[in-house]
Design goal:
alpha+beta; three-stranded antiparallel β-sheet; single chain; 120 residues
């Protein structure tokens, strides 16, 4: 097999691994304080998405997000960048936000994030 082809293939595989790892880092949820979860776009507590917490932990630019200025947005139901969905009324986070044919949420309970956000 051609040596330059193998070198190119190896470089491509390494690059894709770095890109995948970087994308995963950007979607990570952090808990900078007890009862607070943040991704790279917003922060929330047990009352919902919070402009104040977003500004405190992510900065003024993040707090200028249009989610805070739109009256159409329910700040008590939200999906983080990694796909984790949290509902303040249910006091529960799930692995996704989707519904099944029966009208019930299909995502498995995200126990780690539910505990971090709601203490349950």
């Amino acid at each position: 097999m051609n040596k330059s082809y193998l070198s190119f293939s190896l470089a491509l595989l390494l690059t894709m691994g770095v890109i995948s790892a970087h994308a995963k880092d950007l979607a990570t949820i952090q808990s900078p304080a007890s009862g607070v979860l943040c991704d790279r776009y917003l922060c929330a507590n047990d009352k919902g998405i919070s402009r104040e917490l977003t500004e405190k932990y992510l900065g003024k630019k993040a707090a200028a997000n249009e989610v805070f200025t739109s009256s159409d947005v329910d700040l008590t139901e939200f999906t983080f960048a990694n796909g984790t969905f949290c509902d303040v009324k249910e006091r529960l986070c799930r692995e996704d936000r989707y519904y099944g044919a029966n009208g019930q949420r299909t995502g498995a309970v995200a126990k780690k994030y539910t505990k971090l956000l709601f203490g349950e």
